[in-house]
Amino acid sequence: MNHDEINTLLKPKTIAVVGASATPGKIGYTVVENLKKSGYKGAVYPINPSASDILGFKCYASITDVPGSVDAAVMCVPVKLVNTCAEDCGKKGVKGLIVITSGFSEVGRKDLEEELVATARKYKMRILGPNIVGTLSNSDKMNASFAPFLPLDGKATLITQSGALLIAMDAATYTRRVGFDKMVSIGNMCDVDIADIIEWLNGDESTTCTSLYIEGLKDGRKFIKAGRASKKPIIALKSGVSAHGAAAAASHTGSLAGAAKVYGSAFKQAGVIQASDLDNLFDRTLALSLMPPLKGENLLVITNGGGVGVLATDAAERYGIPMKFAPKDVQEELKKHMPEFGSAKNPVDLTGMAGTEWYAESVRFAISHPWVDGLIVLYCETAMTNPLEIAKGIKQALNEAGIKDKPVTVSYVGGEKSAAAMSWLVENGIPAYAAPDLAVNAMAALREYALLRETAKEPDYKSNDAARKAAMQIISAARADGRDALTEIEAKQVFNAYGLPVTSTELAKTEDEAVALAKKIGFPVVMKIVSPEILHKSDAGGVKVNIKDEAAAREAFNTIIKNAKAYKADANIHGVAVQEMAPWGTETILGSTNDATFGPTIMFGLGGIFVEVLKDVTFRVAPIDKVQAAEMFEEIRAAAILKGARGEAPRDRKALSDTVEKYSSMIIDLEDEISESDANPVLVYEEGKGLKVVDARIILKKK
Amino acid sequence: MNHDEINTLLKPKTIAVVGASATPGKIGYTVVENLKKSGYKGAVYPINPSASDILGFKCYASITDVPGSVDAAVMCVPVKLVNTCAEDCGKKGVKGLIVITSGFSEVGRKDLEEELVATARKYKMRILGPNIVGTLSNSDKMNASFAPFLPLDGKATLITQSGALLIAMDAATYTRRVGFDKMVSIGNMCDVDIADIIEWLNGDESTTCTSLYIEGLKDGRKFIKAGRASKKPIIALKSGVSAHGAAAAASHTGSLAGAAKVYGSAFKQAGVIQASDLDNLFDRTLALSLMPPLKGENLLVITNGGGVGVLATDAAERYGIPMKFAPKDVQEELKKHMPEFGSAKNPVDLTGMAGTEWYAESVRFAISHPWVDGLIVLYCETAMTNPLEIAKGIKQALNEAGIKDKPVTVSYVGGEKSAAAMSWLVENGIPAYAAPDLAVNAMAALREYALLRETAKEPDYKSNDAARKAAMQIISAARADGRDALTEIEAKQVFNAYGLPVTSTELAKTEDEAVALAKKIGFPVVMKIVSPEILHKSDAGGVKVNIKDEAAAREAFNTIIKNAKAYKADANIHGVAVQEMAPWGTETILGSTNDATFGPTIMFGLGGIFVEVLKDVTFRVAPIDKVQAAEMFEEIRAAAILKGARGEAPRDRKALSDTVEKYSSMIIDLEDEISESDANPVLVYEEGKGLKVVDARIILKKK
């Protein structure tokens, strides 16, 4: 079972240190020293052929000499010895390898990693790493790493792809007062990956929140699955999201960067909350690890300073949890705990005269009131009041109210006394921050978590075997023809197989055929050149629109063929596509790419300037269902247009979400065949009147 | 002279405390105590009729009893006594009143404020406040406030509209290690305002940067003028920028909020850098007070950890200073100071092995290289290196390089040792931050400052007297007619007087006149009903377009009149406007409002969905000139459309900027008359082909 296997890596009962050293300063020494210093309760077996004892632990020449059983082996040997040592571990019956050693795929030696994985598979061992700092756990009093000490104790677990950052963040837990139970260096992820740890953490009683620093995932879809199944909040900081950042990341890690933009969508689909930067990762982790989600929209802010109250209000709008005025009864009650010139509206300004009692009374009332979904308490240091006493008053009021399912965050603006009060609050389970916007941002994370729990679900998806079969025939024929781009007619046939409402388009090889097809389809029609060599049809004079009768159809056919020949004499001309002329509607675009990390991925946007000038598009990792498709329509800036802006009737979003679901099925079913595709434009009509895919394009994967 | 007057408030040589108290805990006691504790060197005169001595200072019954001259009087008496005491101060020859007392316009008693101002004017006294904490200065060892101590010493001066925030920030300077030379509580600004202090600070040797917390300005244009003239960087945190925040702010201060969106533009026009929140105000202030502006685009990042390097790179893009790869010669030199697996590309990754020497060598080389405009140094705490030593190495390298005109910011991610190293750096003049994105954000502020110094200039503006005279005739006629909305024809006449290229539009009262005008203007024409009672002309069937000949003109005239009468029988019908039909162009909109804080303000955007759905508009406080107008075109998201997106020719931006300049002149010249106006649409043609204002609207101020 996966859970037991990961247990041997993250909660091993016995540890061997392969490559242990008696020389201080060497990693093989530091790891043994750290296990000792951290108070690890299991057996520790240093392995080193030339030492008899390291730091009081009996040393063995080979792991096979160790008397008892060994759960995990921490590997600190040079890279050239790793595989031999892994063989020995396998023979010994070791269950997990924690491979600190570097020099694998991160420097281009993927072969060494594959060799190591093969050895591990042979002996049913799991691997953490290679190229890691190790793994640390407060609840197990275990520092199986070369990071100098266990982090400040906390309820979150950090998984990081950067070892340097683990060490720096470890130290920073003490200055920032944000603790972790575990810190796991995940490294090259040749075997166990972030998704495995996320899954394992569901069963870890010491962890209430998973905090991630991600440079690049390997298996994006496995990550999404694990995120959706997580019973605990997950917060991720993704680095390399800028264009130059992605390039810089590529130069320093072995992992695939993936399209930066797709990550944002994938996190959302996985139910993973995002951190904007390193500070924000610490800050949001603190709140997510201590507080329940914010289940409703009604946020109350209590303050002793109008200024910080307004700053919090601004921040609430900026972070997507805008505030409202409190209802009358709430205002009336709160008015009792402030002077005449205070304000009970929200933010509730108790004024600078507010002492412990007013704070406590207001907090106790507010958290208990059914209107209030979440509470932010702000304090500006004054000469007259005692920050720590007020902190204790807040905590006691919350205890007395006994409400466990509403989140509270706190901000103190002030000096040493305020800092001490905030430390006390955090130690007593209440997230506290040094600026009002930070307390609001933390609350926003709790709201995001509540919303993501609703939306990040497995799509309602089934493979369409009949459609797939039909599509494969068309694709195979094109491949047999030596092509990896389908013609528009072929692409539309594939779309059509999946039920996408394409405009009728058929191939005419002669003038007479063109007329017959135009009559069958119904005038007016559009006619376009069909030639694999002519991609830019308009430039070649190969497109005629609004052809209204037989005479015009004949003329158009001949003109198009003549123009095409003039444009490219040696072009292989299949004929002329005769196409239904769809009435004009709201122009939208669907596209797909095959992302290196996440696989088939859908893009949606409005057409024309919205895509070309405003880049107003949104992404989803496929498959998605109708409901998830409809969420995309809300995400674009021009969302209002689909709802019927400027007096127009709302567009048929039901038909559109249905079409996106089918498109998603198509690119998933044909994942091994389609490299990229698009439906552009998709003309969407009024509600109830459907849509039409006017042009279609499919590029096949090279085989 | 203004400078000397403000001197008496912020650097008084002698201070009286009017309302001094011998009772600890009272504000009148605290102020005297603070003056003493802070080591103030001038004479201190407590004024209190019932005490003879307070804290060792001889006490006087009335200020008129004080033997020597008095620069400033700190007023702590109850509000009802303030004016009487001010009279006494005036008689005594006091030059400045620092009015701590509250109970004025912030609680609706503007009358008391006006009375106080009148008294001050009578005796040529200046007033700071009322409703303030006081004013503090490290360089003068003066704490003339009830804030408990002087802030950590620094090179910036804080001016704040929130007294509570001043006290809290005062304490926070010690925990954040961001100091101030002065902290000025500005309060209700009944006399001296933020602009006055900004101007005064130009001559203050102890201040290198002005830091503002603003709730609402009173005289927006004076602020812009002071900002432009400032010789030092100014950074502002504006609270109440959200919809609910503005409402909350209104409930707790006496000042006008102004349209939140206009503030952003006004800050830009004033050359004022913005802070996003309280943390950001501290962080950016630190860099702006210690470092020169970032004059070019080439930013080099040196790091010992790839992870933080990539995070910095991401932040650089997010904050508008995207990074590039370093040129070959830079890379080659830097390669010498790192192991084989490091990276010299940018970010320059010295790897975790980097000690003081590599850092120092890289920094010394990089800051001296002509390609490098600014340098960000990142450090991830490791077990093997000494944070403080590396800090000293960085400082020494910078000293040796001797480059004074390029900025450097630093980030350390780590624990106590890193915190100590950062404190050392700040004390030695190098801004240092606890996360890489903060160091980047600080650098972005230095870049914004460099750019704002170029753009925030007085507009090249002259009043147009002839146009104003012509416009006033039309406006007076409309007022005489009892109207405060001009008709389209009148509005176009006003626009035309200012040289705005409106479509020819004339009034026809009869069918024959309509035909004659159509012929004069040239077919095709547009015809519209003219009636002050019919605002929605299309709804009334009062608009006909594309009228191609005489017969059509006759029919249109009659139909429009008939429709209008049917729509509103008692409407006062002036006739039918016959209008040149402008060829279609790119639709843009100009609008103006009269902002409560900033006065006449211009809005610009593209028409249709861009304004209505995307709210893609930008603002400027008038007047602006051509060059400043052109900057607006770059600010909208759809900026590319004016440059000729999707294969179209670029639009005539020269004509457009010329038009915006004229529009700006119009609303400034007619500031006392026009409440709001718009030119919608303004159709902009290809470069060299100009534009046409198709419709015009002017609403007059009620008189």
Helix content of chain A: 40-55%
> Biggest interface pair, residues each?
A-B, 92 and 92 residues
Question: Hey, roughly how much beta strand do the residues of chain A contain?
Answer: 15-25%
CA-CA gap between termini of chain A: 37 Å
Oligomer: homodimer
CATH class of the largest domain in chain A: Alpha Beta
Shape descriptor of chain A = flat
Q: With helices defined by DSSP (H or I, 4 residues minimum), what is the helix count of chain A?
A: 24
Q: How many discrete domains of chain A?
A: 4
Mean pLDDT of chain A: 94
The side-by-side strand order for the widest beta sheet of chain A comes to: 9-8-11-10-12-13-14
CATH superfamily (homologous) name of the largest domain in chain A: Succinyl-CoA synthetase domains
Rg of chain A is: 31 Å
Query: Which fold does the CATH topology of the largest domain in chain A refer to?
Result: Rossmann fold
Total number of strands of chain A: 29
Uncertain runs of chain A: 252-258
What is the makeup of the main sheet of chain A? 7 strands, mixed
SS class of chain A: alpha/beta
